[in-house]
Amino acid sequence: MEKQTNEKQEFNLGEIIGLMQVKLDAANSQILHLGLLVEYLYKELEEKKVGLDLDSYPTWAQERFEEIKKINETDTGKEIQESMKKEMEEIAKNIKL
User: Fold this and answer.
1) What's the CA gap between 50 and 2, in Å, rounded?
2) CA nearest 95: which of 17, 24, 39?
3) Residue 14 CA neighbour count, 13 Å, CB half
């Protein structure tokens, strides 16, 4: 998959596309399983007559989203983003077209 030349990793575009497809397939699988889990949990709670206040979900989701955004604005969040950016730039530099 990788060739070593001049101490740099070079990637073939086809290999990168293949790897991205594997990641996409894994992400889609995770989304599907998460959806199934939510559906199962909701069904189980409904059968046990546990009342859920789904009307409050949009407010809760917005508040949780804001919390996550704040985490991303911390030094740790910025470090993670910078690391990911550098990784993607390194991969892009080594793509042979």
Assistant:
1) 54
2) 17
3) 1
Closest CA to 19 of 86, 85, 88, 79: 88
What tokens were used for 97? 């077209």
For range 92-96, the mean pLDDT: 72
**For the segment 8-32, what is each residue's pLDDT rounded down to a tens digit?**
556 677 788 888 888 888 888 899 9
Query: Which tokens is 84 given?
Result: 């990911």
Locate the domains of the chain by residue range: 3-96
Q: Is the pTM of this model over 0.85?
A: no
CA distance linking residue 29 with residue 19, whole number of Å: 15
